[in-house]
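re: ur question from the group chat, yeah i did fold both. here u go
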Amino acid sequence: MSYLSRRSLLYGLSGFAVTSTLNACSRSTGTVSSSGAIIAQADVEPIIDPKSLEKPNLTIGFVPVNDCAPFAIAYEKGLFRKYGLNVTLSREASWATSRDGIIFGRLDAAPVVSGAVTNARIGAEGARRAPLCAGMTIHRHGNALTMNREMWQAGLRPLHEYKGDLERFGRDFRRYFEGLPPERRVWAVVLSSSIYEYFVRYLAAAVGINPLTAFRIIIVPPPQMVVNMRIGSMQAYMVAEPWNTRAIAGNEGVGFTFAQGREIWRGHPDRVLAMQESFIDQNPKTYRSLIKAMIEACQYCSKPENREEVAKLITARSFTGSKPRTCAMPTVINPSDVRQLPACTTQFTGPGIIGNYNYGGFDGQNRVVQSAETTLFYDLPPDLATESGSHSTFLWQSQAIWLMTQAARWGQIPEFPKPALPGEQISIGRSLLKWASSAPAVIIKSKRLNGSSIATPLILASQCATSTASKFAPMRLNLSTWLSCVYCCNPL
């Protein structure tokens, strides 16, 4: 079997094997088993000798959502191999298995939902405590909140159509949920004690609704969101793309996009690359090679001229499996011909990556919004780039603080850790090494706190409040007041 035909099986046959199969594969060959077939990585000459690395053979997880794109590019373009790494990719069933794979040592590294690292260190909501670290932000934005058809029929509309009238949205929201029997008041997210849950609770609290009593939050893996909404298991959900678009395109009648996450917090981190603290301590050279490969992959995904190719690449069954059934595509795809695939290939993955985002709806109106900010892999808009050389992969400790304030706000930890950031400085501080990779202009810079990196959300509610009543009161605070609150309660 030729090299190219082996690689083409990645697209034409099946997904990566589950972890039990992966563990049986040889990790010394730089290959991945796929239903008995062998898929080779791109043949790229390494610029780093694998023998110079402490652990060149790595197993890295990913979840079948759009943010697997940098992993797909790093694998397909040979960027892992370029930096001396022999990587086996493991497709994970959910964000919980991705996180737990790191905690229990099955995975060397994997993306996790923002908040999973800090909350593992502080044991939020009874979570297993683990010394996880975040090496980099994989991407920002790229997620959305989807509501079902019944919510549309009840009068709810995409958030931007309320034109800032939160009182009207609050009335529509309350009227709908208060009219449901308790067992149907359900909102789904992909992982507890993470940014998606905090966005849902934050949004409800911003309009004076107590999310602790108004509805239940359940956990559903991303690929199962649409089908669970179709059968009535939840009224709304928050997930990364393409699983919001899938409720609209190809599943007409299921739901509509209420808001992208960036409409609640512009510039928020969606995924971070997580690993055990011991992995960094024991394998510092390997760690640097991994970060360099992933940053270069994020740079590739970020370029406008590459985005359509990236959106097409991840439609492979090995990655998201989001191929439109009505699109005339070859059964077997040669990786070198990805750019030549028809435009309909990106029906599901394109809106979140290319930026032609459709909010849907059931009134026949065109709600497509063009924006390069739908997903941020590396380059930042000028107003979010707070200094020269700023990029999306950088980790801000101030953003980790916000995530922990939400854990305290919703009773997942008894109080905010004091003094502030004792373990959290370790969880992201170790990755903030001041070094430049061989890729142009890639520098990871160390900063302690940057308030301007936190885009002012919809309504800033008090994070230092401790009484039950004030936890969801729609208090309007400006950014400096919010940061003063953090400084006051938890001096740095």
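okk and heres the other one u asked abt
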Amino acid sequence: MRSIASETARGGREPFFLSARQKTVPDPHVTGRLLLLLLLLPAVAVSVAAAQLAPVASHPTTTAPADVVAVVNDAPIHASDLEAAMNTLVPLSSYHQNLKPQKVDELRTQALDGLIDEELRYQEAMRLKVHVAEGDVDLALARAKKSYRDEQEFERMRKASGATLAQIRTSIRRALLIQRVSEQEVGSRCRVTEPQAAAFYHDNPARFVLPEQLKVSLITIGVDPSAPQPDWERARQKARDVAQRIAAGASFDALAREFSSDESRSKGGDLGFVHRGQLIDEFERALRDLKPGTVSPVVQTIFGFHLLRLVEVRPPAQKTFADVKATIIRDLTETRCADQAAAWSKRLRSAARIVVGGGAIARPAAAASATRR
């Protein structure tokens, strides 16, 4: 049975004694922005994106309407662009084989919204005459090439994709234009200063209190949940025998090393510091009335029988501003920038002519969004 430290470090299943409130599922943030592909993604994504994206979409087109999924101020967004965008949200095989149609539709909507916002930002960069020097494109291309083993591999992948070097450079220039206009219109205006962070800290002191912490040691006599009743009775008796030896003066650490099935046995059962509410309910109840230096009665869970020792209690403590300054600045900046970026996108959309549809392009994006909601 693994310990809290080992499970977290290995990225494996959650340790059994963490409460459901403490078990979290990663929620990765996926931008779906094709503008980042050539700069940030691995080699295959770079070549695929270069092949699928038109070099510059912001001009009138004679492409057949059936190939156009949206038009943004007369600039078409093609079905191939949308397919490439969806592939950045989830691998092609995954959404075709494993995702429900409703989820695929949600991803398609998310991807199309991203492409529309990207096109609007590109057009805004052109309107504001944002400039990208050739040297900047050279540097970005060199950075992208570093994801390949060498120049030969880059050329091989480029040729296999059908993308020309000129198309790749045009896509990079477009990405840099969008990046720079975003920094100009949002990034440069949303950063939180240290005085602003300090004001937030002083206005919200309760947010920065380190809760009471308990240093706990554990002995587990593990039982397979599907084991027959006699196995459970033998494990219960073994746990009682260990408890009696501790009560008679035996070392908890030594007995943990000898009998515990939890990986914390290598550290004498030491789980380190946890805060109240972090452990499963059975352990929380057992620790509730313990005094430092005392050991709980035998505790049963679906994983076996356990003894807990409360080693130390650290009372709640107020974190200093120095402790949390970087976190406050980061979190407030992310929130403010996200809010300002959303407001900027709303302004760009309100001033734009956007139509969305399949073969016949006739539905304004705002109406489409309202229908989806």
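fwiw on the second one: Confidence is low (pLDDT under 50) at residues 1-13, 20-64, 359-373. Residues 34-195+326-372 form a domain with the Triger factor/SurA peptide-binding fold fold (CATH 1.10.4030.10). idk if thats what u expected
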